[in-house]
Amino acid sequence: MIKTDQYAENIKQHAVRFTDTTDLEPIIQAASSAKYVLLGEASHGTSKFYTTRAEITKKLIEEHGFSFVAVEGDWPACFEVNRYIKRHTSDYSNAREALYSFHRWPAWMWANKEVTHLIDWLHAFNLKQNKQVGFYGMDVYSLWESMEAVVQYLEKINSPDIDKATKAIECFEPFHRQPEQYGISAAFYGENCMSEVIDLLQTIQQKRKTYENDPEASLNLQVNALVAKNAEAYYHAMVTNGNESWNIRDRHMVEALHYIGRYYGSESKGVIWEHNTHIGDARATDMAQEGMVNVGQLTRETYGADQVYAIGFGTHRGSVIAAGKWGEAMEVMPVPKAMPGSWEDMVHQAGDFNKYMMFTPENRELFQETIGHRAIGVVYHPEMEQFGNYVPSRLSERYDAFIHIDETSALSPYIF
């Protein structure tokens, strides 16, 4: 039985109250020596998670030399933002126009006022720098957009490999941009495009040096081809094995991160924005029992725990942007008070104010009990929260630090 009062007392002893980003300096300093800083969120629609992550990101870039931001977003849309902040295009006159590149649902995750402020800052920061800071998407969903980007680039440079790219995209055309249709066909009827996209990716990898007259274009080409390969596998697995599709997605994100890191060089450092369920080590949750991995686990295994600093986020109550069903219109929803006995509830009991905890060898064992930790996705039903929105977690193993914002409010998305 969890002794709630004792846990609240432990939290009270080891948590630090904060009112603005300057109070988070100890976390920023601890994170700054890592190669990758993973910034989480307990939902995809909470304003304060975005603004707090943005302020931490600015500090890491400006004061500690971090090279890029990589987010849980589509590569093609994020690459348009990257082009804007580096002044590689005149297509956009401001950050808001660049963020309209996010068309696929849920567009509100990135096309919002909070992200606009960060993109404005990155654009202004890059004006003063020789070495430009980048902005990239790590996700796997943009199969058709990525395939089209590959074809367009190969056509532009008159590449002899255009036939392979055309053959690959033509293979997907009968499915009319419906990933569910493709997944069913691939899983149950053996009609898939795996050989075409693997052949294309291998060709691009073998010939990548031929594209290095424009290194950013080469990176764009390689990752779009990678997205096509892994998206094909993701949609195939999605129909028959949900856990494996999750693993394909998170492995893809770590693979995309490798490409970005290689482009910026061995000394580069990156800031990663993703949901807690991706950046918090899966081995400290019930995901491990289901054979699932995530970005937090994989980056620690790949680069070493000392080179990854994961910061989780949580809230006790407030409001959030989400939808009732996948693909439906977004709406502002209430976030009820945290479930009694959850991490969020106990952090709140330790004081109804914003606070953070840093987990160290001296205090880590105090927070290793498996306790429910709230997770809100793009689809949310507040009235049913206790039945599926709490992930059993050992908080001090899942994260290196945890930021609690006691009362939160919904994101400010643009209306399309």
TrEMBL record:
GO process annotations (BP): methylation; response to antibiotic
Keywords on record: Methyltransferase, Transferase
Molecular function (Gene Ontology), one example: methyltransferase activity
Pfam families associated with the record: Erythro_esteras (PF05139)
Keyword Metal-binding: no
Domain of life of the native organism: Bacteria
InterPro entries: Emycin_Estase, Hydrolase/PRTase-associated, UCP036794_erythomycin
Name of the molecule in the record: Protein-L-isoaspartate O-methyltransferase
Record lineage: Bacteria, Bacillati, Bacillota, Bacilli, Bacillales
